[in-house]
Specification:
6-stranded parallel sheet, binds zinc ion, about 30% helix, alpha/beta, 9-stranded mixed sheet
Length: about 450
């Protein structure tokens, strides 16, 4: 019997604290050995990574694949294909946008049943915290929920009916319960009274452009909600995570709380680092999200703070919808368009190319994309290239730039704010537990290889 199932040969390997040319020996889906040279005769198969960088596969902690019920928006097959093509090897699927939403153990199990055998890469599920469902939290955790998610502002659209925002009592009571369970609550932090009040006022005045939409969700709406959630977290002892942070001031506030001993973390998304309000105006609804894209100065501050360690992790917030919901027309303004950026396939490439250009090291970028999300969500076998860890890799050519065309996107609906943009590197292959699930020249090679992962205690 051979020592290895696979040797990935000659790649420039991004380790947690170094970048080295190494062979990677894989056995039983795990990284069995890292060495300058491994004997090809010791392996059943080998693959050539010369000329490329081998990064730990991205752990995308924030995607919306919308099953059950809304698979026509996206779905496990198409969503995971886009993720695999982007070098992501594990994703955490959000609890809303499915029918029913994953706010009960039954709903979560139903979703898990649908994902089985249909995802190219590994996955875990968020459970939802919503009014009337605090008592479901323990069973959701037992059913494998990796963590919990709450909205502090209404999700909007028809989702507002199914996945309701938390009131302060639900947030406080839910956090206390999650603290007892040793869990973690992620919040979409925007103050609903401010955002809906401003939206009503602007629309009444006929102000319905992209800029007006951005003006209806100002930084203070985010800051107030972050402040309140941190206060509740501090008082209840609940671990808290802030999804898609859009302002440097919010990062500062979260950092100050960490220094007081609050177990808090901050996520931001590539679009807050790559795009601005002006891009939203130019691109249109494909670049609409909440919180909205900010100005150029804010974006530059976000990069500086990221470089200084204020951002814990990067996630895509891949939130697709049918194409017609991104269209404007008679009676449909920017306010009516679906809010959500569908760019899961580009997260790693954008962060690697832009991060390197701005002087970040590859281990630092890999930390934000893989190691830190794995650690934060208790995925103890994932997130870094080290012996004993899952053999989850993104093989990336850093010497190749390309123009992203819509036809290259593997997601169901091919809108992306990055279509037409030149991206400074390219994912060539993606491996999940030692199996190649994506190759640039062949597409998805193992469509149902992914399995559900659960947080370790
Ligand atoms: Zn989201």
């Amino acid at each position: 019997m051979k020592r290895f199932d696979l040797i990935l040969r000659g790649g420039t390997v991004v380790l947690p604290d170094a970048v080295r040319r190494l062979d990677i020996g894989v056995r039983d889906g795990k990284i069995a050995e890292l060495a300058e040279e491994l004997d090809p005769d010791d392996a059943a198969a080998s693959a050539d990574a010369r000329g490329c960088h081998v990064l730990p596969g991205m752990i995308d902690a924030h995607v919306h694949l919308n099953e059950p019920g809304n698979g026509h928006w996206e779905g496990f097959e198409t969503g995971s294909a886009a993720l695999a093509a982007g070098g992501c090897t594990t994703y955490l699927d959000m609890p809303l946008n499915g029918i029913p939403p994953a706010v009960t153990a039954d709903a979560l199990r139903k979703k898990a049943g649908l994902a089985r055998g249909r995802s190219a890469v590994d996955y875990a599920f968020w459970g939802g915290l919503m009014p009337g469902h605090v008592r479901d939290l323990p069973e959701l955790a037992a059913a494998g929920a990796v963590a919990f998610k709450a909205f502090m502002s209404e999700p909007g659209g028809e989702e507002a009916e199914r996945f309701r925002a938390v009131d302060d009592w639900t947030l406080y009571e839910g956090m206390a319960r999650i603290a007892e369970l040793g869990g973690l609550l992620a919040v979409h932090a925007e103050n609903d009274a401010i955002t809906s009040g401003l939206a009503v006022r602007l629309k009444a005045a006929g102000c319905v452009s992209a800029r007006d939409y951005a003006a209806s969700r100002p930084p203070e709406a985010e800051l107030e909600a972050v402040h309140r959630a941190l206060f509740f977290a501090e008082r209840t002892g609940c671990r808290v995570h802030f999804v898609h942070v859009s302002t440097a001031d919010a990062l500062l506030m979260i950092d100050a709380a960490k220094r007081r001993g609050v177990d808090a973390s901050a996520e931001t998304c590539p679009h807050y680092l790559l795009l601005t309000e002006a891009d939203m105006e130019r691109i249109g609804p494909a670049a609409k999200c909440a919180p909205p894209l900010r100005g150029e100065a804010e974006r530059e501050r976000m990069w500086r703070m990221l470089a200084e360690g204020y951002v814990d992790l990067i996630a895509s917030d891949h939130s697709p919808c049918p194409d017609e919901w991104k269209q404007l027309g008679p009676g449909r303004t920017f306010f009516d368009a679906w809010g959500g950026i569908a760019a899961a396939q580009s997260s790693l490439e954008l962060m690697v190319s832009e991060g390197v250009r701005r002087g970040l090291t590859l281990p630092a970028i890999a930390g934000l994309l893989a190691e830190r999300p794995a650690r934060r969500f208790g995925l103890s076998t994932k997130g870094k290239i080290a012996e004993g860890f899952d053999a989850d890799f993104a093989v990336v050519d850093l010497n190749r730039s390309y123009v992203l065309m819509r036809e290259q996107l593997l997601q169901r609906h091919k809108h992306s704010p990055y279509a037409g943009r030149t991206i400074g590197c390219k994912v060539k292959e993606t491996y999940v537990r030692g199996r190649r699930v994506y190759a640039e020249d062949r597409g998805i090679t193992e469509p149902g290889h992914g399995v559900q992962v659960r947080p370790s205690a």
